[in-house]
Design goal:
The complex is a heterotrimer. Chain A has 14 helices and 2 strands, in the order ααββαααααααααααα. By secondary structure, chain A is mostly helical. In chain A, strand 1 and strand 2 form a beta hairpin. In chain A, helix 2 packs across helix 14 and helix 8 packs antiparallel against helix 12. Chain B is mainly alpha-helical. In chain C, a hairpin with a 2-residue loop joins strand 4 and strand 5. The N and C termini of chain C lie far apart (about 55 Å). In chain C, helix 8 crosses helix 9, helix 8 packs across helix 16 and helix 10 crosses helix 11. Chain C is built from 17 helices and 12 strands. By secondary structure, chain C is of the alpha/beta class. Classes of the chains: A mainly alpha, B mainly alpha, C alpha/beta. At the B-C interface, helix 5 of B face helix 1, helix 3 and helix 10 of C.
């Protein structure tokens, strides 16, 4: 990655001490002394759990005796569950819907905000405000708004003489309702990141394009988007990774209903482990989700590294 | 700083039509944003002042009938929110201390002391970024429940929040990248004066790293405050819950106005933090591995 | 140096956890009473939380009195509100976080025993003086293959809970509540006709509570959830169909169930307390929740036996023992439960004190003892101190002995999850196909029962 000079080596090099080897040992010891807190934390709470995740999915654990190896049993159980395919479909659908709204909208907002010369601080503040609410608060707040009776949303629809919706109470709107909350509370960070990226685009590019007679939309297409291409890609991946893990929305809003239409993979995993006390089944689901997300994560890391250059 | 030229040229904006379009856009954006992002919060704050009867009214009133704060009072008293706010504060501050202590030293070691296998260690740490926290929820939970080798049960203890928070590869990455940019000459001078690496970290590196330390600090604290599923699992004891988990399990047990009151109270701390550290937070957002 | 902090931290955590752990559960078979010289300290779940001031004070009084009687025993109550959060209860169990004497719903008892998460207390249960008086039908909940695992705290059977003012307003007689599902439907129609967001009848349909109430309704129709051997599901029959058809008619034909669905108990109680709901299925202690938590008024509520009266679900809660608890702890725990939960005139059954503390007395719950002398005494004491309009619960209480109470099915939570979906479908989709839904649910339920194997 980076090739900054190290602290100790050049000094040692300059003086050619006979105790060079000893100094190297000392340097390494000091360094690992500094590192050991992180190594312990990572070992226990990152590296080991990753390994354990794989093991878990091939084991049956009941918390009293030792874990038993059961081969592919957990995968068989999970695959035979009629909710399994639904959960993946729901997750994919949620991710796609969240992309359509949550990906395009912040970029569009950022483009417009970047043109405004007034009220900038206010607008930025306001768009980021929901991000600062604890997600549990935002979700419970929307649960109240979604109440088909006196809830805010249906009352607003009634106010403009539109029929109310069932929101969380219908298989056709429940998932979309989750996407709306999710987008509302996450939109701000994307917007601000795009905004920062837009500000790095050199003004001359637009000037030149304008001299060539390019209209507004052509300028967006040929300058704005290519200039922010990497960030757009990074955000796309980040958002896919984030939304595929969606849990708190179904957990607090619908409990997976109606008729399982909002059971996501993460939620199903939680159900297996903590409602059916089947950690093996949960582990198998977790492993599958991990493999899928790792693909996206790997691309993300590649892209963001390229971007950092 | 002079305005750089953006998508629309200043010339176009200067025309009469341009001005008209500009102001229309500005006003409508301000109105729409206020409505979409602020109005729900207004609705929440005033909702807690309405009586349960008023809340059931169709159509609802935009203003509460009277300034009744009993919803807040009841939320505070009935749900014992003070306890949960204090808990969350303890978790957040502890996580911050651990993150600072562990990640700063690690990043310093990796950036400036450059031990053998340093790159491998960094690589292993960064690799954990590929595994989102949700997918290792179960094994992480089982680990905290019975720490390997040591056989400690960290459930219901703050350690279950503090220690995993420190295992944050992203922080290490940000810090290391910042430390990399500190000129070596600065450190060499201190070394010639006979300062130990710890001393150099403390009196040379940290003072110049304030911006990045601020970013990491705020995000660590805010993340603990926002986290839901992890504290839900590792702190099941009702006295140790975080504010988010507590309101999600308790608030359904109370009248509607009290529930809403508890939502408002739970969001006050993060909103205040946002008011105070707005600039840092927004700057930190873009520091996130996107633009150096 | 940071590592030293970490090491200290870990050491501190070590100390804390070791101190928190109890004995090692050597599972001896002694039936000797607890030696008065043996110091025992036990943790007990479901102590009333601070927000329930009166109950908490009473609990602390009980603990003080009990510890005076038995100076060698220390009771360390763990408060929680609610006592069980169904979402995290399993996590708590799986994490081994339960108290020495921990609180459970009847629903979870079988699963918990099957998972080996409760101690076998058969050798010690003889030391509970009150145990022989406990209604065998209730005690059955805590038994598995002749072994005993726990004692009940509350027991109830579900009935029809209703709003007296709304009955009056709708021109119905609050003293003559509906007795059949057809009458419920009629009443619901009249109540919802009051308008202004009033809902005639509400039913749970989320967080497994839909399945739980479906079970109750199936019992009320004379049906069953599983076959006698517990290996196959039995709800896909005329009774199950009748339950769903009735809901469907009320929801869509009559529109008497409101538009908001995916409700859970707290939502429904909130509606009831706000005076917007006519009827729902519930237990008598709902009245307490409505008044304490949701600021309702006792005189507004009445209770009738379950419509149809052919059968109802028996529910309740009680205490199990941690598998890690030592014999001494188990003995001490049994003594405490005897003292505070199961003796008329003491602890939770001290009605005179409850009335003096301004708490409601007169709700026909708990039903712990059945038709024996102890039960008679309990009823008498309660009647003597009653401060509620007891007559409002009379229809329910009169029929109590006549309506057979049934326990929850095996694999209850899994079946409830499956049936939640079914109830949700009927309440949220006008075109829901009941036969299809039941057939699908049957398939899933049979698979779940087969998987559990036992």
């Amino acid at each position: 990655m980076t090739t900054a000079r190290t602290l100790v080596r050049p000094a040692a090099h300059a003086r050619r001490h006979p105790t060079r080897a000893r100094r190297a040992v000392k340097r390494n010891l000091t360094a690992y002394g500094f590192l050991c807190g992180a190594l312990i934390c990572f070992a226990f709470f990152s590296w080991y759990p990753i390994v354990r995740e794989v093991l878990l999915s091939f084991q049956k654990t009941n918390f009293v005796g030792e874990a038993r190896w059961v081969g592919l049993d957990n995968f068989r159980t999970v695959l035979a569950d009629p909710g399994f395919v639904d959960a993946w479909v729901n997750t994919a659908e949620f991710t796609l819907l969240a992309l359509v709204v949550g990906y395009v909208v912040p970029f569009a907002i950022a483009i417009v905000l970047n043109e405004l010369k007034h009220a900038r601080a206010y607008l930025r503040f306001v768009v980021y405000l929901p991000v600062m609410l604890p997600p549990a608060v935002a979700v419970l707040l929307f649960k109240w708004f979604y109440d088909p009776g006196p809830g805010l949303f249906n009352q607003m629809l009634h106010a403009v003489h539109l029929p109310g919706l069932s929101w969380l109470d219908s298989t056709s709107t429940a998932l979309v309702s989750l996407v709306i909350v999710s987008t509302w509370m996450n939109l701000g960070s994307g917007t601000l990141i795009y905004l920062a990226a837009l500000q790095t685009i050199p003004g001359e590019l637009y000037e030149a394009a304008e001299l060539d007679g390019a209209g507004l939309f052509r300028r967006i297409r040929h300058i704005t988007i290519p200039q922010t291409r990497l960030i757009l890609l990074v955000m796309l991946l980040l958002q896919i990774i984030a939304t595929m893990q969606v849990f708190i929305e179904p957990y607090l809003l619908t409990g997976g209903g109606p008729e399982g239409s909002t059971v996501t993979v993460a939620y199903l995993m939680y159900q297996y482990a903590f409602n059916f006390t089947n950690f093996g089944g949960g582990g198998a689901l977790g492993l599958m989700l991990m493999l899928v997300l790792m693909v996206f994560s790997a691309i993300y890391l590649r892209v963001s590294r390229e971007e950092a250059r | 700083m002079a305005e750089t030229r953006t998508l629309v040229s200043p010339h176009t904006l200067g025309t009469r039509r341009g001005k008209a379009v500009y102001w229309t856009t500005l006003v409508s954006i301000v109105v729409v944003f206020t409505f979409v992002f602020v109005f729900p919060l207004y609705w929440m704050v005033t909702g807690a002042m309405k009586s349960p009867d008023e809340l059931a009214d169709v159509p609802p009133d935009v203003f509460p009938h009277h300034l009744d704060l009993s919803g807040y009072r009841e939320a505070w008293r009935q749900l014992d929110l003070g306890l949960y706010l204090r808990n969350t504060l303890v978790y957040a501050v502890g996580a911050w201390l651990f993150t600072m202590g562990v990640d700063v030293t690690a990043a310093y070691a990796l950036s400036k002391l450059r031990p053998m296998f340093g790159r491998a260690v960094l690589g292993l740490m960064l690799a954990t970024l590929m595994v989102p926290p949700m997918v290792i929820l179960l094994p992480a939970y089982l680990t905290v429940k019975d720490l390997p080798l040591l056989h400690l049960n960290l459930l219901n203890t703050p350690w279950a929040i503090w220690l995993p928070a420190a295992a944050n590869a992203f922080n290490i990455f940000l810090l290391k990248r910042f430390f990399d940019s500190i000129p070596t000459e600065l450190l060499q001078a201190a070394e010639v004066d006979g300062a130990s690496p710890a001393r150099i970290l403390w009196s040379v590196v940290l003072p110049v790293s304030r911006p990045i330390l601020g970013v990491v600090s705020i995000f660590t604290i805010v993340n603990v405050w926002r986290d839901f599923v992890w504290p839900l699992l590792v702190l099941p004891d009702s006295h140790r819950k975080t504010i988010s988990v507590a309101i999600s399990s308790l608030a359904v047990q109370v009248p509607q106005n009290v529930l809403i009151g508890s939502l408002v109270i739970a969001s006050v701390p993060t909103i205040v933090v946002f008011f105070v550290f707005q600039r840092h937070i927004m700057a930190g957002l873009t520091a996130g591995g996107l633009k150096g | 140096m940071r590592s030293r902090i970490l090491a200290t931290a870990l050491a501190a955590a070590l100390g804390a956890t070791v101190a928190g752990c109890g004995g090692d559960g050597s599972g001896g078979k002694d039936t000797a009473p607890l030696d008065a010289g043996t110091k025992v300290s036990i943790t007990v779940g479901c102590m009333p939380a601070k927000s329930q001031a009166a109950q908490r004070r009473e609990w602390l009084e009980d603990v003080a009195a009990f510890e005076k009687l038995h100076p060698n025993i220390t009771i360390d109550g763990k408060d929680a509100f609610p006592c069980i959060d169904p979402n995290t209860f399993q996590a708590k169990l799986a994490g081994g976080q339960m108290e020495d004497v921990y609180y459970v719903y009847f629903t979870d008892v079988r699963g918990v025993i099957a998972n080996g998460q409760a101690a076998d207390i058969t050798p010690y249960v003889g030391q509970s003086k009150q145990y022989p008086s406990v209604d065998p039908a209730v005690e059955k909940v805590f038994k598995d293959g002749g072994k005993v695992y726990g004692l009940p705290r509350q027991n109830y059977s579900m009935g029809l809970f209703y709003s007296r003012p709304l009955f009056k307003k709708a021109g119905l007689d609050p003293d003559r509540p509906p007795t059949t599902w057809a009458e419920v439907r009629e009443a619901a129609k009249k109540i919802s006709a009051l308008g202004d967001g009033t809902v005639g009848y509400a039913e749970f349909s989320a967080k497994n509570q839909g399945g739980w109430h479906f079970t109750t309704s199936v019992y009320s129709q004379g049906g069953d959830m599983v076959t006698a051997d517990g290996k196959k599901s039995a709800f896909n029959g005329p009774q199950g169909r009748a339950v769903l058809q009735n809901l469907k008619d009320m929801r869509w034909t009559d529109d008497s169930m409101g538009s908001k669905q995916l409700l859970v108990d707290a939502d429904v109680q909130r509606m009831m307390a706000a005076g917007k709901l006519g009827m729902y299925l519930g237990a008598p202690d709902n009245a307490t929740a409505l008044v304490d938590q949701f600021k309702g008024r006792y005189e507004d509520y009445g209770m009738a036996p379950i419509p149809g009266s052919t059968g109802t679900l028996m529910g309740g809660d009680g205490y199990l023992f941690s598998p890690k608890a030592s014999p001494e702890k188990i003995k001490a725990g049994l003594m405490w439960l005897d003292y505070a939960m199961l003796t008329p005139g003491q602890g939770q059954l001290n009605y005179a004190r409850a009335a003096k503390d301004g708490r409601p007395v007169g709700i026909p719950q708990p039903k712990l003892f059945g038709q024996n002398a102890m039960g008679e005494k309990d009823r008498q004491l309660r009647a003597d101190s009653a401060n509620l309009p007891v007559a409002n619960f009379k229809p329910y209480e009169d029929a109590y002995a006549k309506v057979p109470g049934k326990l929850e099915p095996p694999q209850a939570q899994q079946l409830y999850t499956i049936l939640d979906s079914v109830v949700q479908a009927v309440l949220t989709r006008r075109d829901a196909n009941i036969d299809q839904l039941l057939a699908d649910a049957q398939k899933k339920a049979d698979a779940a029962l087969a998987r559990s194997g036992s």
